[in-house]
Sequence to fold (159 residues):
Amino acid sequence: MEPKVRSASTITMTQIVLPFHANVAGNMHGGEVMKLMDSAAGVAATRHSLSNVVTASVTQLSFIEPILVGDLVLCKAELTYTGNTSMEVYVRVDAEDLNSGIIKHVCEGYFFMVALDRNGRPTKVPPLLIENEEEQRCYDLARKRIQHMKEAKSKSQNC
Ligand SMILES: CC(C)(COP(=O)(O)OP(=O)(O)OC[C@H]1O[C@@H](n2cnc3c(N)ncnc32)[C@H](O)[C@@H]1OP(=O)(O)O)[C@@H](O)C(=O)NCCC(=O)NCCS
Fold:
């Protein structure tokens, strides 16, 4: 399979926060933010693999600052790593206060997506073509996260 560059699948999805996305205090629900992040990760992974994808797991999800009703949410998803059938997608969320123009970094997380064939079985994905030192750094960190996750999974079986 031909390697593909990160920029070919990177996407930014945007959404205005409306009252029905929020709690009574006017803060966007965490679940709504996660849904948008998952959608963006899914689009990036689908663009890269040209396959149906599912979310296998999410790590290091952090809610850093609240997002308020009226904010414009900018959700950027970019591939950091490809395995055989899996991809890691880093999703960064910023919120823009449209009245002041101030943009805050509000949330981030890493989504592991797995490409599936027509029978719903994991299928190979094109390798990620690393273009610079920053992408190499992200790739190396992703490999460590995956290793760590696999070790934690084997230790926590059935408990
Ligand atoms: C994700 C899923 C397809 C993996 O199936 P599986 O039979 O365990 O597949 P395998 O063991 O062959 O693993 C396939 C790949 O997934 C990765 N994987 C499996 N479980 C994972 C997890 N929890 N987190 C991250 N990656 C995972 C494996 O490391 C492997 O990657 P690689 O091919 O790059 O080395 C399966 O568990 C599934 O369908 N889960 C439900 C997904 C879902 O419904 N998501 C919500 C809606 S989108």
Remarks:
- The chain has two helices and seven strands.
